[in-house]
Amino acid sequence: MTAPASGPVPASFLPDAEGWVPAARRVPSPNFDERPAGMPVDLVVLHNISLPPGQFGSGDIEAFFQNRLDPDRHPFFATIHQVQVSAHFLVRRDGELVQFVPCGKRAWHAGQSDFFGRGRCNDFSVGIEIEGSDDLPFTAAQYATTATLVKALRAALPVQAIAGHSDIAPGRKTDPGPHFDWDRFARLADVPQNLLPFRPPHS
Ligand SMILES: [Zn+2]
Hints:
It comes from Cupriavidus yeoncheonensis. The chain is an alpha/beta fold.
């Protein structure tokens, strides 16, 4: 399901009691575990991913997050097919929303990371992968879906910040990359400046 470009949060984007979003196509990943008891989920982390690198729409991201990536399909896959990772969400190029892990569980998306002195960002974050690369613009449909999802997450969770993977793992990660337009996203998602601690204030 894709999202409207603006307006109120559609009920279908609000996570249910477990943290599944009804608007998302559900592709369950085994790559998750429990969040620490009582820890508020107060960070959203934005990523980009493409598999094979630079190619879109293959279905390989879903296979990767379900530990069924075919190592013979691409040379790169042979190097990563045994890596167990996931994210809560994927926003595909056409804006379709896919969910792998319910928001109440700890998805394995950030790896070694630090948010202003707090390590283990997977413990307290929701991870959103946007299908793309560091070299290409994202689509209007992706901005719309990502913005609607973040609005819904803010309505459901005590989100205090939205960060890029590169912000919490600098030197190790570069996503969502230079083509992710944070201002455009913030406008669409009605995200105030104080929730974007890594972005310079608007002039
Ligand atoms: Zn990432």
